[in-house]
Each structure stands twice: as C-alpha cells, then as structure tokens.
Amino acid sequence: MDFSARLYDVETGHCLHTYLGHTGEIVSVGFDTDGSSLLTGSFDHTVKLWDTRSGKVVHTFRGHRGEISCAQFNHLVRHTNVSHLLRLGHGDSF
Fold it and tell me: With contact defined as beta carbons under 8 Å apart, do 44 and 63 qualify?
C-alpha cells in the first residue's frame, strides 16, 4: 500500500493528481462544494487539507491519538476560519 489518494477524471479514466504525504492508510476522503479542496483522514492520526488543483497540502491537522475514520467539510456553516470548516471522526477516547 502506498498511503496515497488519487483524483481521476471519470470520463477519461486518467489520474489527474496523486496526493502523497500520509504515513498510514487513508480511510476517509471528502471534497468541499466547489471541488477546490480535499480532506483525507488516515490511520497515521492526521487529517490533511489539500488544494485539488495543485496537489499540495494546505494544512495538516495533528493531535489525535487514534485513526481518523471520518473527515468532511461542514457545508452548512459559512466559515470564517478553519475551526468551523471541518468535522472529524476519530478513535480518540474522552
């Protein structure tokens, strides 16, 4: 396993971008409403926010003690900062 995510053109089947940077399996993927950003959640206990066009990491969210089982954008909130942007599911116990 290469711990990457890939974005494909559904009409041609060609890979448009390969998103590299996680050190564990990616188990969650989510796009924002306009497709310009991608979230990936991983067994490496991080979430990465990507620019889909450039393929670059915009930010890595760290601090969880368990795998991230769900990462998605909160489309109902007009965000003014990144703290209102994401919903995360993880293996942390509280």
Answer: no
Comparing CA positions, the residue from 40, 33, 19 lying closest to residue 88 is: 40
Residue with tokens 């990457």: 4
pTM: 0.77
Instruction: Give pLDDT tens digits for 28-80.
Output: 999 998 899 999 999 999 999 999 999 999 999 998 888 888 888 876 655 44
CB 17 within 8 A of CB 35: no
Determine the residue type at 42: S
∠ CA 87-2-45, nearest 5°, is 30
Could you tell me the two tokens for 10? 């559904």
Distances (CA, A) of 54 to 18, 39, 57, 80: 10, 14, 9, 23
